[in-house]
Amino acid sequence: MAELDWREIVFQQPGPELGGDAQPGYGHMRKAGLDTSHGVVLYLDDISVSFDGFRALNKLSLTIDTGELRCIIGPNGAGKTTMMDVITGKTRPDAGGAFFGQTIDLLALREAEIVEAGIGRKFQKPTVFEQLSVQDNLELALKTDKRARKTLGFRLSAAQRQRVEEVLVQIRLEDQAARRAGDLSHGQKQWLEIGMLLMLDPKLLLLDEPVAGMTDFETDRTAELFASLAGKHTLVVVEHDMEFVRKIAHKVTVLHEGSVLAEGSLEQVQADERVVEVYLGR
Ligand SMILES: Nc1ncnc2c1ncn2[C@@H]1O[C@H](COP(=O)(O)OP(=O)(O)OP(=O)(O)O)[C@@H](O)[C@H]1O
What are the residue boundaries of the ABC transporter domain, all occurrences included (predicted)? Predict the structure, then answer.
């Protein structure tokens, strides 16, 4: 069966110019242009997006600090997905600015370049390679890394192998490494996909309703995982599950009709009458 042939195509030893085994990871090279010295990793400035005259985002301004775990909540149609689409280059705004750190103008980059710059996105539904093992899925994630692709070779570098091991532990699937991904539970698949993002060591992770469909146990585990990732990574989590938000959030942003309605601790936004009216009181 030719199912592992992709290894030959995908995995290539980094050459000396890339540090080869000497590189503990790839992230810092990819993010060479990222400057978060002012403590801000993402800055959206007056972003507007219209679809056929309807304003999905309306002068949206938002600042996310480095290492934060930010929750974005809001009613259906508030613009949460559109905001993620703008950050990742999927949707281009009609007006406004979007900056990754001090210097990277996201609106000047293509989608693949934004991934390369260090922004990873997890959509709601898990999209793992079901026929492959957990470990192979993680290894395959490196395929999107330009530097891993560039050079010739066959096996993973020691640094890459070590990264797979680290991520397996982080997502708590170390005893499932050889298991077929299709046989995992829904929650485990979600963790695996997060692990695939982590293989590229993103500075900013965007996560869309990560605990939808999870059991309570899986939701708790996910809260622990996110808490462990914050600090090293910045997490922006769009979520409707308020219990989950309560577990993880330090700061919550409420979107409504394409702009920020309220921002603060969960207690603060829950006490805001406007938020209760448009969202929490439903
Ligand atoms: N490609 C599109 N074409 C037309 N309208 C769109 C498009 N994408 C989004 N919209 C509209 O823009 C508004 C904002 O949508 P968006 O998906 O960003 O909201 P959301 O906050 O993510 O909602 P939900 O919680 O339901 O996912 C909605 O009214 C939606 O119908």
Answer: 42-282
Ligand 1 center from residue 226 Cα (angstroms): 26
The predicted pLDDT at position 27 comes to: 38
Nearest-CA neighbor of 178 among 141, 138, 136?
Answer: 136
Ligand 1: which of 44, 49, 81, 123 to mutate, most ligand atoms within 8 Å of CB? 81
Question: Residue 273: pLDDT above 50?
Answer: yes
Q: Which helix (H) or strand (E) holds 242?
A: helix 242-248
CA atoms within 13 Å, Cβ hemisphere of 248: 32
How many A from CA of 69 to the centre of ligand 1? 23
Q: Residue of the nearest CA to atom 18 in ligand 1?
A: 79
> Could you count the other beta carbons within 10 Å of the beta carbon of residue 114?
22
CA dist., res. 115 & res. 103, Å (int): 16
78 lines ligand 1 (CB under 6 A): yes
pLDDT of residue 38: 82
Atom 28 in ligand 1: which residue has the minimum CA distance? 77
Q: Which CATH superfamily is domain 1-31+127-201 in?
A: P-loop containing nucleotide triphosphate hydrolases (3.40.50.300)
From the alpha carbon of 85, which atom of ligand 1 is closest? Answer: 18
Alpha helix segments (H runs only) across 103-214: 111-117, 134-141, 146-150, 158-170, 186-198
| pTM recorded for the entire structure | 0.85
| Mean pLDDT, all residues of the chain | 85
ipTM above 0.90, yes or no: yes
